[in-house]
Amino acid sequence: MEKIDFSGFDIPEKEKKILEAAINVFSEKGFSAATTNEIAKNAGVAEGTIFRYFKTKKDILRGILIHTLNMFSEKIVIANVEKLLLESEDKDIRVILKEIVYDRIKLLESIFPMARIIITEAMYHEDLREAIYKNIIEKALEIFKLFHKKMVDKGVIRKDIGPEVILRCVMGNIMMLIAQRMLYRDKLDIPDLDTEIDKMIDVIVLGISEQRRE
């Protein structure tokens, strides 16, 4: 995973050091095995200093996750989606979808450990859910709505299916494919990923394509 640099944030220098040290320790030992003492040593601060900024080890993790979302969503989550969708409307929709699928697979597999933690923690923390919505879901939906309108105007996809439904179908398939590759590789092996993606896109396109309706 790309190293998180907190230098662009308006937060105290010691807090930045603690967050960066926590990432190093969490990456090496995992969240459960990591201790605030180890984080303090890695950051070069006293353990008591940590508790000036974070009440618990869990709060350190939440701080990392929220700052990560704020910092990287535009750079690695939104930017590529916008380019692939809004600058590729002259391509066949299958080609566009395939590029999106491969791009999202590459991204999600590269950040899978952090993504898994974010999803788990979001179930319990409203501020994290809000960060996910504002930085990822809301922005991605705005971009997809523009793409949806262009495709509808060109007569490529059905206008009676809203962008929210189509986006959910596409992302749902991608997430299931990632889960299959990352969590159940030994039980649900995919010998030919390219062929599997082509079949998945066929299912999606047959459902949303205007030309396929009878």
Question: Can you give keywords for this protein?
Answer:
about 210 residues; mainly alpha; Arc Repressor Mutant, subunit A; Tetracycline Repressor, domain 2; about 0% strand
Strand content: under 5%
Give the structural class. mainly alpha
Number of domains: 2
Average pLDDT works out at 83
The CATH topology assignment of the largest domain is: Tetracycline Repressor, domain 2
Q: Please describe the biggest sheet, giving its number of strands, its sense, and whether it closes into a barrel.
A: none
Quickly name the level 1 CATH class of the largest domain.
Answer: Mainly Alpha
Secondary-structure element order, as H and E?
HHHHHHHHH
Radius of gyration: 20 Å
How would you describe the shape?
A: elongated
Helix content: over 70%
CATH evolutionary superfamily of the largest domain: Tetracycline Repressor, domain 2
E-strand count: 0
The CATH architecture of the largest domain would be Orthogonal Bundle
Show unreliable segments.
Answer: none
| Terminal CA distance | 46 Å
Count of alpha and pi helical runs: 9
